[in-house]
Amino acid sequence: MVRNVLITAGGTVEAIDRVRSITNTGTGKLGSLIADSLSEYDSVKKIFYIHAKNSYVPTSDKAITIAINGTDELEKTVKKLCTEEKIDAVIHSMAVSDYRVRSVMDINSAENLSKEELLEKFDRENMLKGCNKLSSKIKNPIILLEQTPKILPMFRRLLPEAVVVGFKLLDNVSHEELIDTAYRLLVENGCDYVLANDYVSVESGRHEGFLTDKEKHEISRVGKQEIADMIAKTVINGGI
After folding, report:
1. Cα dist. 211→62, 161, 206 in Å?
2. pLDDT tens, position by position, 47-87
3. Strands 193-198 and 208-213: what pairing?
4. Which among 68, 100, 122, 223 could bridge 14 via Cys, Cβ 3.0 to 4.6 Å?
């Protein structure tokens, strides 16, 4: 029985300095609707809702909202909740940044160097060291990014018995490619279900979501509320 649910929603914010950041277009709207839809089931007692600070949040009293910024903070929060609470289901709808800032260097320092030499120079001359805010007088700063840790595979490792729902967003692809990519994500990360979206439908306002399971069965709904209800019903009933 699903009693406690963990939901992630919104987009992470990766700091460049104390006043600048890199983010994405995730709003958390669908995640908040999923939380409210789940709250309508009597069996659900608590919903731990991890969200970006400016994202939508649920209206339900069952929701415990936890605001985070970057991927590092998300990772720590997820590990803490999964360790300290009994979580029965996870809906990982958050648009997690693929990259975070490693260092910043003036373009004038980027000479004809090898990859290894350039990386060493980036870290050695990192203008973020001891700096709260980069000077606006720097004409051409170069930002070196690095990959963020993957959050989705953590859930199966930390919660071997929980229902795990992942999300996959692609842009302007065929239906076959969308479902095949979502299914690969499901298999590689030990998910029970994956919600596949194409950004074309999201941007058009006709948001169509396709939910697939381990047998590659597939159901779909149009509109965020309908998608949220579909996911909530699937999680509670244990199948599509």
Report:
1. 25, 20, 16
2. 999 999 989 999 999 999 999 999 999 999 999 999 999 99
3. antiparallel
4. 100
The 10s digit of each residue's pLDDT in 171-181 is: 999 999 999 99
Both tokens assigned to 56: 């939508």
Q: For the chain, which residues make up each domain, given as ranges? A: 4-97+151-237, 99-147
Name the β-bridge partners of 48. 6, 64
Report whether 185 contacts 167 (CB < 8 A): no
Main-chain dihedrals φ then ψ at residue 164, nearest 5 degrees: -120, 125
4-97+151-237 falls under which CATH superfamily? CoaB-like (3.40.50.10300)
Per DSSP bridges, beta strands 89-92 and 63-68 are: unpaired
Alpha helices by DSSP H, 85-222: 115-124, 152-158, 175-189, 199-204
Contact indicator for 134, 141 with CB cutoff of 8 Å: yes
DSSP H helices in the chain: 29-39, 71-84, 115-124, 152-158, 175-189, 199-204, 224-237
